[in-house]
Amino acid sequence: xxxxxxxxxxxxxxxxxxxxxxxxxxxxxxxxxxxxxxxxxxxxxxxxxxxxxxxxxxxxxxxxxxxxxxxx
Length: 72
Fold this sequence. Notes:
Layout: E1 7-19, E2 22-31, E3 37-44, E4 50-56, H1 58-70
Antiparallel strand pairs: 1-2, 2-3, 3-4
C-alpha cells in the first residue's frame, strides 16, 4: 500500500506571513489528484516541505468570507 501524499499547487493566492524561511500561504492545492481546494498552511521556500494546515472547499471558503465580512 502506498501512503504517499501527492499535491500540486495550482494557484498561489497570498503570503500571509513569513518566519525563518517558512511562509504561511493561502493557495489552491490539488491533493492526491483531486479537485483543487483552498489551503492555508506553512511552506518552506521551494514548497517541498509543509506544516499542518487547513483545507477548505468552495462552500467552506465562501462561508468563511461571509463570516469575516459580517464582523465589520
